[in-house]
Design brief:
The structure is a single chain. The protein is mainly alpha-helical. It has one domain. 66% of the residues lie in helices and 0% in strands. The termini are far apart.
Length: 351
């Protein structure tokens, strides 16, 4: 498409139009996916609690999220009189925008990626780190003590688990030998005896896959780590003073980040868009890779919802202890173990 538009409109205009079209091709389905995944989330919680969940608006309640969106859109935006108006409105925009930026390097198939850059993993780590600014700004600009306390909690929580996630990513990079997400996926093809397409089947890497799944819940402030929105302590967290579309942008950004973490779990440890098994006698490869990726993402999202419906919330001291005293030392030790494993693979056992 880019080449066609460049021949039609010239190099610069063609590149710009093609890039904008590809961005919309990712962003618009992502927004639709967020709306539907909220519906799925509520249905899973209802099933866990033996309830029906959304079932009134549309067939099987499928249009409930869109009805909620219209309701929020038509509400009045209320800004507290003592708030910093500019920063108060800027915070949800930052959160929402940063949540979308990370998807630029996510590979949906063999040739289905907006920006196939060699430092894709570093790009995602950097972009996800920027999300804390929207949270902190929203808490400070509200000029209310409960949102401010929540923002400080969120900043400490996100920074704590980003450190562990960074060391886990180093283990993956050591195995794959690259920061490019497409190459990381291809490195998982036929990984164990040429049969399984996943790093996680390696007993050395499987613990890090589990730790990354738990850390991704904490990084997105998902239950049982949603201490930033603990109702008994902080009302509704840093979103307390928000209403209308400014509140909706926080929700959209939060669920976009959850989907991103589900995608990263699938890409880094479970083969991404590759089929589960690398065997010719099963017509795996006739199925487009994007369906395999979406299927794995949905599985991890189900795990997120399952945990939210069944696991009690942590205390904040337990949350910090898990991040700093368990996950950080564990991920550091695993970097040493994986690097040793890679050296033995490459050079053999030392004499």
């Amino acid at each position: 498409m880019t080449e066609f538009l460049q021949n039609l409109l010239g190099y610069e205009a063609g590149w710009l139009l093609a890039t904008l079209a590809l961005i919309l091709l990712i962003a618009l389905p992502l927004m639709l996916g967020v709306a539907m995944i909220i519906y799925v989330d509520r249905k899973i919680w209802a099933a866990m609690a033996l309830r029906r969940g959304p079932n009134v608006v549309g067939p099987f309640g499928l249009l409930q999220s869109f009805a909620d969106g219209i309701k929020v859109f038509l509400q009045e935006t209320i800004i507290p009189s003592s708030a910093n108006k500019g920063l108060f409105l800027l915070a949800p925009i930052i959160t929402f925008t940063v949540a979308l930026l990370a998807w630029a390097v996510i590979p949906f198939g063999e040739d289905m990626v907006l920006a196939n850059i060699n430092i894709g993993l570093l790009y995602i780590l950097a972009i996800s780190s920027l999300g804390v600014y929207g949270v902190v700004i929203s808490g400070w600009a509200s000029n209310s003590k409960y949102p401010f306390f929540s923002a400080m909690r969120a900043a400490a929580q996100m920074i704590s688990y980003e450190v562990s996630i960074g060391f886990i990513l180093i283990s993956v990079v050591l195995l794959a030998g690259t920061f490019n997400l497409q190459e990381i996926i291809k490195a998982q093809e036929g990984y164990i005896f040429g049969i399984v397409n996943a790093f996680a089947v390696n007993p050395l890497i499987f613990p890090m896959a589990v730790v990354f799944l738990i850390a991704s819940m904490a990084e997105t402030a998902r239950h049982p780590f949603d201490l930033t929105e603990a109702e008994s302590e902080l009302v509704a967290g840093y979103q307390t003073e928000y209403s209308s579309m400014s509140f909706a942008l926080f929700w959209l950004g939060e669920y976009a980040n959850i989907l991103l973490m589900c995608a990263l779990n699938a890409i880094l440890f479970w083969g991404g868009w590759l089929p589960p098994l690398n065997v010719d006698w099963i017509p795996w490869f006739d199925i487009p890779g994007i369906f395999w990726l979406f299927g794995k993402m949905f599985f991890f999202f189900f795990v997120f919802s399952w945990v939210m419906a069944t696991v009690p919330r942590y205390r904040y001291d337990q949350l910090m202890r898990l991040g700093w005293k368990i996950f950080l030392p564990l991920s550091l030790i695993w970097v040493v173990l994986v690097s040793g494993f890679v050296m033995v693979q490459k050079f053999g056992w030392p004499l």
